[in-house]
Amino acid sequence: MQLTALLALATLAIAAPADTAEVAPRNVLTGPCSAGVTNNNPQCCGAGLLDLLYFDCETPWEISSPLNPLSTICAERGLQAKCCTLGIAGLGVLCQDALPE
Q1: pLDDT-based confidence at 23, cuts 50/70/90?
Q2: Average pLDDT of the chain?
Q3: What is the domain-level CATH number for residue 91?
Q4: Coil, strand or helix: which one is 84?
């Protein structure tokens, strides 16, 4: 019985990490657009007017990821990756360039 308890304690001591490794802060970004109130709607857009209004905007037809970024998805159809505040009927309102993934 004492040997079992001693072996259990020894196993725990070996399995416990020697020191606590510091984990690097992680960017909790859910995609190519910021998580704020504005410019959080990913769009693939054509020509634009002063970053205020973009024409021929489409919702991305694929899910973006680090291996398949929004810029690549949009470039397949000759469009630009944008993050818009609002997308209405093919128009992107108050847009900015998408963040690199």
Answers
A1: very low
A2: 76
A3: 3.20.120.10
A4: strand
What global pTM score does this model have?
A: 0.62
> For residue 87, is it within any domain?
yes
Name the amino acid, one letter, at 81: A
The domain tally of the chain equals: 1
| Backbone torsions φ then ψ of 86, nearest 5 degrees | -150, 140
What are the distances in angstroms from CA 54 to CA 43, 71, 78, 97? 10, 16, 14, 11
Domain hosting residue 53, numbered range: 33-101
For the segment 69-75, the average pLDDT, to the nearest whole number, is: 91
Q: How far apart are CA 73 and CA 20, in angstroms?
A: 41
pLDDT tens profile 37-56 = 777 889 999 888 887 888 88
Per DSSP, the residues of 26-82 read -----SSS-SSSSS-EEEEE--EETTTEESS-B--SS---SSS-HHHHHHTTT-EEE
Residue 82 forms part of a structural domain: yes
For 57, list phi and psi in degrees, rounded to 5.
Answer: -85, 140
